Amino acid sequence: MQIKPIRDKWQGNMTDRERFKRQMHYKSFDRCFNMEFGYWDENFEEWKMFKDNSIKDNAQADLFFNFDTIKTIGGRVWLNPTFEHKIIEEDERTRTIRNSDGLIAVEEKFSSSIPNYKSSSVVTPDDWKKVKEEKMRRDDPARVLDIETLKAQHPTDRDYPLCVDCGSMIGKIRDLLTFEGLAYACYDYPDMVEDMVETCCLLVEDFLDQVLPHFDFDLAGGWEDICFKNGPIVSVDFFKNVVTPRYKRIRKKLDEYGIDIWYTDCDGDVRPILPYFLEGGINCLFPFEVNGCAHPSEVLREYGKELRIMGGVDKMALSAGKEAIDTYLESLILLVKRGGYIPFCDHRCPPNVKEEDYLYYLDQKEKLFGLK
Amino acid sequence: MQILEDMSLALQQGRKPKVEELVGQALDLGLSPKQILEEGLLDGMGIIGEKFKCNEVFVPEVLVAARAMNAGAALLKPYLTEEDAVNKGTVVLGTVRGDLHDIGKNLVKMMMEGRGLTVIDLGVDIPAERFIEAAIEHDACVICCSALLTTTMDQMKNVVDLANSQGVRGKFKIMVGGAPVTETFCRDIGADRYEADAASAAEAALEFCQS
């Protein structure tokens, strides 16, 4: 489907790639990189502009708003085959499912928010042994990438930043065990959990070995989502001793190919484990939830230019209306000017943000951080 | 007493089998179940709660400590008489209508039980009417509402409004918490208390129940 943008692309005199690299390396840039993380599914059903223009997902929304382009190459670094997704039971408002990670979960039929995970298919070392042998094989031919096709998709003269996905060392394990299950497993079966982390790391390393020699990546990305409003869901010692050493191995590979920016997607209060992210080589936070953590200026002040942030626009301000949007965006002016910081909504934009306020936010963002 | 100090420490370390072993030994030594509960188990859980508040430990440590406490308490239960039972007040707890998330709610429950409060856990997706009915039925001092989502937190206002419209607002305090909830939001909807973490919520509920 051809997407007709509702807005002009922000004016500029650099390519998206140049702009991103310069902004994230504290060099002069024409204007701020313009991106957003996306929207809840409900926004596509409720916002008139999306409905009227048949915009149904985040990729289409990026084109619709004419954001700058950033693309990612990822590998198959998790369960293969996945567990069969099936509905176990349902009522008028909810359904109980087994998802592709083997978790039994209750989800709302009419909301896209996080399901309530009830139990896991993996509890004991025997369960893990079976899953590892059947679904986490390093020699699985499905993990081999078609490099030539990827090269055709991402030519060397591309004008957008290209990211290499470094997967997850612990977040996906949480997805396999449940939040409580991971907490208990770290105490009951620490060797099993460490073996799970090691397996994740090996699969990511295998993927990196396939792609790094063939692409001039501009950044690395990853996903963990292992923090809540009250801090991490694994103990700090576990993170430091088990997870960080694996990050260091990946960092070493990235360094060999000159990829110095590495972000990870982690909600909530990341501050207790932030020193170990940095020690492991992750030097950029995404999408940096303000209400669950802090204003971005607080951690950037503490960590200086060693740390970058992508995100950090408080979604609560977007839902509070124009005045709150103005106040919040003004608090980011110096951070954008300083470099190493790209502002956007600190998670998928929720449907309680009014459509007109969201457009106002985009307008104000362009006025403050674009060339308008 | 050394055995109770050891029990408290083992609980703080999440060592469930050790806590069970020490509870058995303490009973064999003739210590009263009430003393074991208060000076061993609840003491350990209280310390974990304080450390959680100060960011010295995080959610995983609280979960394994609570698991150890529950295991120890289950062993004590047959020996506790009605007089021994520690009930410092009753709290009705639940996640609001439209929200299925219970991790935060469950943490609050663990912390409250660790403070000797009786918790009536209504579960998730609870309509305002059910909070009020349960509070009256159980003569609760506190209603505690949890929400994870910006889209469901407004349901907390329905609980406050319903308590007002039914003329029962003075019978209990209403506490609110969860990822998107703030002090300002609490004030705006007319609730009595917001706390940022489970341990502080338990402390506040205890304070309400004892006032």
Count of individual domains of chain B: 2
Order of helices and strands of chain B: HHHHEHEHEHEHEH
State the end-to-end distance of chain A: 30 Å
Unreliable segments of 5+ consecutive residues of chain A: none
| Proportion of residues in helical segments of chain A | 40-55%
CA radius of gyration of chain A: 21 Å
Q: Could you please describe the fold and organization of this structure?
A:
The complex is a heterodimer of chains A (372) and B (211). By secondary structure, chain A is of the alpha/beta class. Chain A has two domains: 310 residues, TIM Barrel (Alpha-Beta Barrel), CATH 3.20.20.210; 37 residues, no CATH class. Chain A has 16 helices and 13 strands. Chain A has a four-stranded antiparallel sheet, with no helix packed on it. Chain A has a four-stranded parallel sheet with strand order 10-11-12-13. A three-stranded parallel sheet of chain A has the order 1-6-7, with no helix packed on it. The longest helix of chain A is centred in the middle third of the chain and has 22 residues. By secondary structure, chain B is of the alpha/beta class. Chain B has two domains: 78 residues, Methyltransferase, Methionine Synthase (B12-binding Domains), Chain A, domain 1; 121 residues, Rossmann fold (3-Layer(aba) Sandwich), CATH 3.40.50.280. Chain B has a five-stranded parallel sheet with strand order 2-1-3-4-5, sandwiched between helices. In chain B, α1 packs across α3, α4 crosses α5 and α6 packs across α7. The longest helix of chain B has 21 residues. Chains A and B meet through β4, α8, β9 and α13 of A and α4 of B.
